[in-house]
Specification:
- It contains four helices and nine strands; from the N terminus they run βαββαβββαβαββ.
- It is α+β, with helices and mostly antiparallel strands.
- It has a single domain, classed as 3-Layer(aba) Sandwich (Aminopeptidase), CATH 3.40.630.
- Strand 2 and strand 3 form a beta hairpin.
- The radius of gyration is 17 Å and the shape is globular.
Amino acid sequence: MIIRRAFPEDLEVCAEADASVETEHVWQMEERNVGSELQITFRTARLPRPMRVPYPHDLSRLAEEYDRDECFLVASQGSEILGFIDVRLEPWDRVGWVHHLVVMRRYRRRGVGTRLVQAAAEWSRRASLRQLMLETSTKNYPGLCFCQRLGCAFCGYNDRLYPSQDIAVFFAYPL
């Protein structure tokens, strides 16, 4: 497997990827007011049956995102695309936001996502960024576990980010 900068001809394959996940667990958020404190808790909950979680972003717009000429990398083996990562630069605070991290379904849990994040982190260091941020839904339990395995630090949430009303959680990858 090699990690390389994406070529325009890679975008069609990337845009057609099945980026959904299947899970039997989610993170449930509980918000409580206790005196003058607001307590937010995320806890793992087992679902009564497996659930398919759709990808929250529109992959049909990858060509536009590619044209930003920031960090768009693919993992490939021969002519086959195994996965991709798209990082958007926020220069005002020197942060790279992972906008897309997708591993093709048949290559998941084989280290492809880890290698993509590591390559994006290296790009971030060369770009003098101070942080690489990952975002996922509380329904994407495999993604949540992935962020934790990478050593990412939980650093916030947004309960109004996605049109689906799912909760987005944010993790900082150590540079």
